[in-house]
Write a structure and sequence with these properties.
Blueprint (H helix, E strand, L loop, with lengths): L6 H27 L5 H18 L8 H35 L6 H13 L2 H12 L4 H8 L3 H31 L1
Length: 179
Protein backbone atom coordinates (compact mmCIF):
# COMPACT_ATOMS: atom_id res chain seq x y z
CA UNK A 1 0.00 0.00 0.00
CA UNK A 2 1.33 3.46 -0.89
CA UNK A 3 1.67 6.18 1.71
CA UNK A 4 -0.57 9.20 1.26
CA UNK A 5 2.31 11.58 0.50
CA UNK A 6 4.48 9.18 -1.47
CA UNK A 7 5.61 10.30 -4.94
CA UNK A 8 3.42 7.61 -6.50
CA UNK A 9 0.35 8.78 -4.56
CA UNK A 10 1.00 12.40 -5.54
CA UNK A 11 1.38 11.37 -9.19
CA UNK A 12 -1.89 9.42 -9.10
CA UNK A 13 -3.66 12.29 -7.35
CA UNK A 14 -2.31 14.72 -9.97
CA UNK A 15 -3.56 12.53 -12.80
CA UNK A 16 -7.00 12.14 -11.19
CA UNK A 17 -7.21 15.88 -10.60
CA UNK A 18 -6.23 16.66 -14.20
CA UNK A 19 -8.95 14.27 -15.38
CA UNK A 20 -11.53 16.01 -13.17
CA UNK A 21 -10.28 19.42 -14.33
CA UNK A 22 -10.46 18.48 -18.01
CA UNK A 23 -13.93 17.06 -17.54
CA UNK A 24 -15.47 19.99 -15.64
CA UNK A 25 -13.49 23.23 -16.11
CA UNK A 26 -15.39 24.49 -19.15
CA UNK A 27 -18.76 23.89 -17.47
CA UNK A 28 -17.65 25.64 -14.28
CA UNK A 29 -16.31 28.57 -16.32
CA UNK A 30 -19.58 28.83 -18.28
CA UNK A 31 -21.55 28.83 -15.04
CA UNK A 32 -19.43 31.64 -13.60
CA UNK A 33 -19.60 33.64 -16.85
CA UNK A 34 -23.38 33.51 -16.50
CA UNK A 35 -23.05 35.14 -13.09
CA UNK A 36 -20.46 37.86 -13.77
CA UNK A 37 -20.07 40.03 -16.85
CA UNK A 38 -16.28 40.29 -16.75
CA UNK A 39 -14.67 37.35 -18.60
CA UNK A 40 -11.31 37.83 -16.87
CA UNK A 41 -12.99 37.81 -13.46
CA UNK A 42 -14.91 34.68 -14.45
CA UNK A 43 -11.66 32.92 -15.36
CA UNK A 44 -10.13 33.99 -12.04
CA UNK A 45 -13.13 32.69 -10.11
CA UNK A 46 -13.10 29.37 -11.96
CA UNK A 47 -9.38 29.06 -11.20
CA UNK A 48 -10.13 29.74 -7.50
CA UNK A 49 -12.72 26.94 -7.54
CA UNK A 50 -10.15 24.46 -8.81
CA UNK A 51 -7.55 25.77 -6.40
CA UNK A 52 -9.89 24.96 -3.52
CA UNK A 53 -10.65 21.59 -5.13
CA UNK A 54 -6.93 20.82 -5.35
CA UNK A 55 -6.38 21.69 -1.69
CA UNK A 56 -9.16 19.33 -0.64
CA UNK A 57 -8.71 16.72 -3.35
CA UNK A 58 -8.80 12.98 -2.62
CA UNK A 59 -8.34 10.84 -5.71
CA UNK A 60 -10.40 8.02 -4.18
CA UNK A 61 -13.36 10.38 -3.81
CA UNK A 62 -13.01 13.11 -6.48
CA UNK A 63 -15.38 16.03 -6.59
CA UNK A 64 -18.22 15.95 -9.05
CA UNK A 65 -19.75 18.79 -10.98
CA UNK A 66 -22.35 19.63 -8.28
CA UNK A 67 -19.62 20.28 -5.67
CA UNK A 68 -17.64 22.39 -8.14
CA UNK A 69 -20.71 24.45 -9.13
CA UNK A 70 -21.65 24.97 -5.47
CA UNK A 71 -18.11 26.17 -4.76
CA UNK A 72 -18.33 28.44 -7.83
CA UNK A 73 -21.57 29.88 -6.45
CA UNK A 74 -19.80 30.76 -3.19
CA UNK A 75 -16.77 32.24 -4.96
CA UNK A 76 -19.03 34.24 -7.29
CA UNK A 77 -20.97 35.66 -4.33
CA UNK A 78 -17.67 36.61 -2.68
CA UNK A 79 -16.60 38.40 -5.87
CA UNK A 80 -19.93 40.22 -6.14
CA UNK A 81 -19.72 41.33 -2.50
CA UNK A 82 -16.25 42.76 -3.10
CA UNK A 83 -17.49 44.58 -6.19
CA UNK A 84 -20.50 45.95 -4.29
CA UNK A 85 -18.21 47.19 -1.50
CA UNK A 86 -16.07 49.00 -4.05
CA UNK A 87 -19.12 50.56 -5.72
CA UNK A 88 -20.48 51.68 -2.34
CA UNK A 89 -17.12 53.20 -1.44
CA UNK A 90 -17.01 55.08 -4.71
CA UNK A 91 -20.56 56.34 -4.18
CA UNK A 92 -19.56 57.50 -0.71
CA UNK A 93 -16.54 59.35 -2.10
CA UNK A 94 -18.77 61.06 -4.64
CA UNK A 95 -21.30 62.06 -1.95
CA UNK A 96 -18.50 63.42 0.23
CA UNK A 97 -17.22 65.45 -2.70
CA UNK A 98 -20.69 66.88 -3.28
CA UNK A 99 -20.99 68.14 0.29
CA UNK A 100 -17.38 69.30 0.69
CA UNK A 101 -16.99 72.89 1.84
CA UNK A 102 -14.53 73.58 -0.97
CA UNK A 103 -14.96 72.36 -4.53
CA UNK A 104 -13.17 69.07 -5.09
CA UNK A 105 -11.32 68.55 -8.34
CA UNK A 106 -12.75 65.63 -10.31
CA UNK A 107 -9.20 64.34 -10.88
CA UNK A 108 -8.74 64.13 -7.10
CA UNK A 109 -11.93 62.08 -6.85
CA UNK A 110 -10.73 59.74 -9.59
CA UNK A 111 -7.34 59.37 -7.88
CA UNK A 112 -9.00 58.57 -4.54
CA UNK A 113 -11.35 56.04 -6.14
CA UNK A 114 -8.41 54.32 -7.84
CA UNK A 115 -6.38 54.34 -4.63
CA UNK A 116 -9.28 52.77 -2.71
CA UNK A 117 -9.61 50.05 -5.35
CA UNK A 118 -5.97 49.13 -4.84
CA UNK A 119 -6.35 48.56 -1.10
CA UNK A 120 -6.74 45.02 0.16
CA UNK A 121 -10.14 44.00 1.45
CA UNK A 122 -9.01 44.20 5.09
CA UNK A 123 -7.42 47.65 4.59
CA UNK A 124 -10.53 48.89 2.86
CA UNK A 125 -12.75 47.56 5.67
CA UNK A 126 -10.86 49.33 8.43
CA UNK A 127 -10.77 52.61 6.44
CA UNK A 128 -14.46 52.41 5.62
CA UNK A 129 -15.63 51.46 9.11
CA UNK A 130 -13.53 54.21 10.68
CA UNK A 131 -14.04 57.12 8.29
CA UNK A 132 -17.25 56.50 6.39
CA UNK A 133 -19.21 54.66 9.06
CA UNK A 134 -17.73 56.74 11.92
CA UNK A 135 -17.02 53.78 14.19
CA UNK A 136 -14.65 53.96 17.13
CA UNK A 137 -11.64 51.65 17.34
CA UNK A 138 -13.56 49.54 19.86
CA UNK A 139 -16.55 49.23 17.55
CA UNK A 140 -14.32 48.35 14.59
CA UNK A 141 -12.51 45.78 16.74
CA UNK A 142 -15.78 44.20 17.77
CA UNK A 143 -17.07 44.19 14.20
CA UNK A 144 -13.91 42.62 12.78
CA UNK A 145 -13.33 40.43 15.86
CA UNK A 146 -9.85 41.76 16.49
CA UNK A 147 -8.18 43.66 19.34
CA UNK A 148 -8.55 47.47 19.44
CA UNK A 149 -4.77 47.79 19.22
CA UNK A 150 -4.87 45.80 15.99
CA UNK A 151 -7.40 48.27 14.62
CA UNK A 152 -4.96 51.14 15.17
CA UNK A 153 -2.13 49.15 13.56
CA UNK A 154 -4.24 48.21 10.54
CA UNK A 155 -5.58 51.74 10.22
CA UNK A 156 -2.07 53.21 10.31
CA UNK A 157 -0.84 50.78 7.65
CA UNK A 158 -3.95 51.25 5.50
CA UNK A 159 -3.60 55.05 5.61
CA UNK A 160 0.06 54.74 4.60
CA UNK A 161 -0.84 52.49 1.67
CA UNK A 162 -3.61 54.87 0.63
CA UNK A 163 -1.22 57.83 0.91
CA UNK A 164 1.36 55.99 -1.23
CA UNK A 165 -1.23 55.16 -3.89
CA UNK A 166 -2.34 58.82 -3.93
CA UNK A 167 1.27 60.03 -4.15
CA UNK A 168 1.85 57.81 -7.16
CA UNK A 169 -1.35 59.10 -8.78
CA UNK A 170 -0.28 62.70 -8.10
CA UNK A 171 3.17 62.11 -9.62
CA UNK A 172 1.60 60.54 -12.70
CA UNK A 173 -0.69 63.56 -12.99
CA UNK A 174 2.28 65.93 -12.74
CA UNK A 175 4.08 64.09 -15.54
CA UNK A 176 0.96 64.21 -17.73
CA UNK A 177 0.54 67.98 -17.11
CA UNK A 178 4.11 68.67 -18.30
CA UNK A 179 3.47 67.09 -21.69
Amino acid sequence: MTRKNSPEERRLAGEAFREMFDLHFVRVLRFVEGQVSDHTAAEDIAAEVFSVAWQKFDRRDPFGLPWLIRTAMHKTRDFQRREDRKKNAMATVERMAEVASEPVDSLDIIALEEALRQLSSSDFQVIRLTYWDGMTAGEVAETLRIRPGSVWTRLHRARNRLRNFLDVARKVGEVDERR
